[in-house]
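Worked example

This section walks through a single chain of length 218. The input is the sequence exactly as stored; nothing has been trimmed or padded.
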Amino acid sequence: MNLARYTAELVERLTMAHQLEGFADLFVVLLHELTKGAPVSPAALALALDWPVGRVTAALEQAVSAEWDDDGNVIGYGLTLRETRHTFEVGSRRLYTWCAFDTLLFPALIHRTAHVESRCAATGVPVSLTVTPTVMQHVVPAGAAVSLILPRDTPDIRHAFCCHVHFFASATTGQQWAATHPGIEVVSVHDAFAVGRECAERLLRATGLPNAGSVDHA
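Given that input, the structure is written out below as tokens.
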């Protein structure tokens, strides 16, 4: 695999999912609001974005994978209040993500450090790491890897991408698993983090949010 070419293609496809005008702003602000550990109402998003509620509601209709509670509040979109195999601790709050890649991408978008705990999708071996907006630290096992896939052109990013993106205890373990999963590539967790930084840079540049031009501002 040509990693540079694959990275460019993956970044392009992932960020295209947020090309609706203003959606990058909504996505980043929604992540910030979800880190508070409570459901997020459209009204709260409208206030944080300084948008009319109707514009927020229309934008959320494009987020076809979003998770909602019974009161019409968002409880998950990439970052979620519902338990998954990927624990994402920010400060004292235990949150979760839809996939391994999210844990590497989101710290740059929310300008916060996260402690991540997950398990190898093939063996169940625990995988843990600390992810800051700019670096990864304390990766255990040191040779951990991540599966990636080039998502189809669909608004359902969870089904097209997240459901296929896991941690593995090693590249070898991941490659053995990927041998029976067509379209999957397995890269080191460090390479996956580099892809996440590129995605974060692209998304932040697409927003009109103050101080959001680069992950290096974190």
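What to look for: Residues 9 and 129 are 26 Å apart (CA to CA).
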